[in-house]
């Protein structure tokens, strides 16, 4: 993650911090998430960014978290992970 653009890192940190202590003014029912749940979100973000880069997406082009989670980048990441897993499909998952 140290090689990630600064904006991407700061957006991820802000997103995770917001999940840990959500604002009561969002108009939604909110509750604090467990630390392990926050770590799962962190892991998913790291995995998706890494997989998109593994499939050829430019890390330098992901200046913000929103740049990393476009439909095109998510599709690239999921296809990369799918192919890395042997292109297996499990109908019961």
**Number of domains as seen in the coordinates:** 1
Structural class: mainly alpha
**Overall strand count:** 0
Sheet-strand content, in percent, reads: under 5%
Shape: globular
Helix content: 55-70%
Mean pLDDT figure: 89
- What separation lies between the terminal Cα atoms? 30 Å
Please describe what this structure looks like.
This protein is 57% helix and 0% strand. With 93 residues, it is mainly alpha-helical. It has one domain. The longest helix is centred in the middle third of the chain and has 20 residues.
Give a nutshell description of this structure.
It contains 4 helices and no strands. With 93 residues, it is mainly alpha-helical.
Keywords, separated by commas or semicolons:
single chain; 93 residues; mainly alpha
Set out the fold topology.
Layout: H1 6-20, H2 35-54, H3 65-68, H4 71-84
